[in-house]
Amino acid sequence: MAESCIPTEITDLRGFDVPSGKTDVVFIIEGRKLYLNKGILSFASPVFDKMFHGDFKEKSQEEISLPGKKCKDFIEFLLCIYPNTMEEISGDTAEVVLPLADEYQVQQLKNKCETFLIKQGLDDSWPMHIYIIRSGERLVHSIVLAEKYGLDDMLEKAFALAADRKFSDLKNEAEFVTVSEKTKTELMLKRIDLLETSGLEISTQTKTLLDAISSNPNCEHAVYSPKLRGKKWCTADKCNQSLTSSSFISKLEELGKQKDSFNKIFHLLGVKQYDGIAQKQISLF
User: Is residue 184 part of a domain?
Assistant: First the structure.
């Protein structure tokens, strides 16, 4: 390969550019020669194991070219599987190493990448969690990565968080077009389920409260109340049909406990929290 094709930004090959007594294969990537050991590569990767010990032409080759690979990325991959380095996954290397770990079926390394990406972008314990999760771009990107590389745990976590977001917001992210139709459909169905569940909780309590209110106009103590749209409502002390009676107040309190359900619905719809509205409605009584 011509010298001009060799990437000049790679200056440190972390020792892989120096042959040793254990070198028995050379990988050529972007014009750079990496001196490696078949045993180490075979132990880490079933793909390399078949390459070196199966019925493939690479079995007898001393130098093997890997077109389409980036030398810098491949070195990061090697640093994670070589026993004398075994570097940890970081924010700079996770998405660099993951495609190679997937291609060469290094499952343990792939699991490490998934664990790191979940912790970095989807886990409450991560310091940047609030900032990252608010980013629809990061959330959609996590789904795309999970689908592409078969990261089931990551997909499940990202899916749950995405279902809690406005679908229109997710659709505006550039990578959303690469999300599978299956996941898109399941996201919509999950959002419908969340809305129905929260709505049912509110509906049950509201019906109980309305049933209690409906009998008030028949009470002999009922009076007109401008606060209650000019209708007659009982507010007499010790009357079991009164809006101030313990039975009515208990029902009102039960409805008040559904504030989280109101907030959940409003959040799913992209509306501000219900707290202020709830307080305004309750003050009418």
Answer: no
